[in-house]
Amino acid sequence: MTPGREAIRSKGWWAAQRWLLLRRASQLLVLSLFLSGPWFGLWIAKGNLASSLTFDLLPLSDPFVLLQSLAAGFMPALSGLLGAALVLVAYNLIGGRVFCAWVCPVNAVTDSAAWLRRRLAIKTGRVPDAATRYWLLGAVFGLAALSGSLVWETVNPVHLLQRSLIQGLAGALAGGMTMTLSVLLLVFLYDLLVASRGWCGHLCPMGAFYGLLGPKGLLRVAASQRAACNDCMDCFAVCPEPQVIRPALKQDGQVSPVILDRDCTACGRCIDVCAKNVFNFTHRFDQRSDS
Amino acid sequence: MKPEPTHQQRKEAGALASQARRKFLNRIAAAAGGAGALALGSLFAMPPAAARPAQALRPPGALPEAEFAGACLRCGLCVQACPYGTLRLATPGDGLATGTRVFTARNVPCEMCEDIPCIKACPSSALDHRLTEINNARMGLAVLIDHESCLNFLGLRCDVCYRVCPVIDQAITLEKLHNPRSDRHALLLPTVHADHCTGCGKCEKACVLPTPAIKVLPRPLAQGALPEQYRKGWEEKERHGGSLIGEQVQMPVRGLEDKAPGDTRLNSDWKP
After folding, report:
1. Which CATH number is B141-222 given?
2. Are residues A118 and A233 in the same domain?
3. pTM (2 decimals)?
4. Are B73 and A178 within 8 A, CB to CB?
5. In the prediction, which pLDDT does B49 show?
């Protein structure tokens, strides 16, 4: 049975889609803050996710890009450093991979691939080791240091997509879009045909970076009502990082009901699809549990 | 006390351990190999800095090309800060690092804003924040590249590139030369001086020809350099207030004894 059908039946459509829809809204909101300027002349955030200036006041920079530039041997300007520090502190507080679920525009692409893979019951392919992303992260910084250039940013789907949407449509459309579309298509097909949740969960060095950057974030999902679990496996089916659920849900190696693994993106999809209301959003130190 | 493991048990444990070790190493090799392949793939997608096309110019204060691709964060803040829409993103078709900033002078030249908003907006060191005087920007160098179609070279008075130059009479001057064709007019040749040209591209934009005779090119492409030891005698002479090797003796030239030194015109009755 399709994961989440039982939840829709028992909780109603909205309650069974709530966090997914709120997450899409959050991703669109971030994008629209950047797009309102170039599209309607209403400037809220200038730049893009790599580096931006909001209300001509608040600088924010992606520490992943900034560190690549540092590795390449270049000291960013003060506004860039300040922006990266702010982002670093923010994700350290709420949890690094919250970026992946709530901000990153590629999330919609890989979620769609995962949805279609479930829908078409595709079982083909070979899942790479989850540690591949850390090797790739190392390779990205290594390449930057060796070449003195931001090599990964030529293909990084996250920044390619954002840049194409914000600045590509205004200027030379064809060339920039071709690269973006081909990279995104590769990611989509890879997740659909080769590896379930292959890109975000196993390869993306940016996700790995954010996971390392804020491994002990406050915003967490907890299996507070874990005694009610009826082992329907719907949460495992929809989770982008299924290995994170078990310790909290089945008390495997930990007592706390909170999902503490740094890989958890706090997407809240498990809360949505659970018909027994086992999961809820909470903070890291919430020990309340029914078992 | 635990009993000593038998030889058989030891062998089995060893086999298990070696199997686990092999599996572990295989896993690491696959992960590292996959990561390496992906990283190398990204390297191939990156165009080399040397491949920059001649007419893609960088914003004011931009680092040298080889360094630019490492410092630029590809955020586009300079593009959005430009009030004239001069800058745009490089796309893969440009043969440049994707997402870095360029402009094409013939389309929209740099208007040379006094407050240089593009540099102020830059969160990286790709645009040099120490550049505060726009006249010191060196985005490229204008070159009057086609002497055959430039109207001034044809003896006409177009002068448009000279008139639009924001650093008129310094970056571009009109050099007066005798016009050998009509023998009674002057040629006023637009001449670019690298010491003052900012490479803004207004001359290229304004050139009245369907294809401009004057073009702004990246400096490494357009500019030559004298050898280190080279000294211009007339400049040295002026600097020292006289010749460094003493006054030269002016020797008369045979057959021209009645003429002033340097006057080599022949008399009308001269026969070889």
Report:
1. 3.30.70
2. no
3. 0.79
4. no
5. 55
Interchain proximity B77–A166, CB inside 8 Å = no
Q: How many domains does chain A have?
A: 2
| Of the residues A185, A212, A239, the one at which a domain ends | A212
Q: Is the pLDDT of residue A169 over 60?
A: no
Residue A223 domain boundaries: 5-15+218-283
ipTM rounded to 2 decimals: 0.83
Of the residues A182, A212, A242, the one at which a domain ends: A212
From B39, B74, B125, residue closest to A139, measured CB to CB: B39
B127-180 pLDDT tens trace: 888 888 899 988 889 999 999 999 999 999 999 999 999 999 999 999 999 888
pLDDT score recorded for residue B77:
87
Residues of B in contact with A136 (CB under 8 A): 34-35, 38-39
Pick the CATH number of B46-136 from 1.10.150, 1.20.1440, 2.20.130, 3.30.70: 3.30.70
DSSP chain A: --TTHHHHHHH-TTTTTHHHHHHHHHHHHHHHHHHHHHHHS--SEEEETTEEEETTTEEEE-HHHHHHHHHTT-PPPHHHHHHHHHHHHHHHHH-TTHHHHHT-THHHHHHHHHHHHHHTT---S-PPPTTHHHHHHHHHHHHHHHHTS--GGGT-HHHHHHHIIIIITTS-HHHHHHHHHHHHHHHHHIIIII-TTHIIIII-HHHHHHHHHSTT-SEEEE-TTGGG-----HHHHH-SSGGGHHHHHTTSS-S-SB---TT-----HHHHH-TT---EEEETT------
Nearest residue in A to B94, CA atom: A175
Tally A–B CB contacts below 8 A: 181
**What does the pLDDT look like over B2-49, one tens digit per residue?**
667 777 877 777 777 777 777 777 777 777 777 777 777 777 766 655
* A138/B contact by beta carbon, under 8 A: yes
The band of A103, judged by pLDDT with boundaries at 50, 70 and 90, is very high
Query: Are A204 and A87 members of one domain?
Result: yes
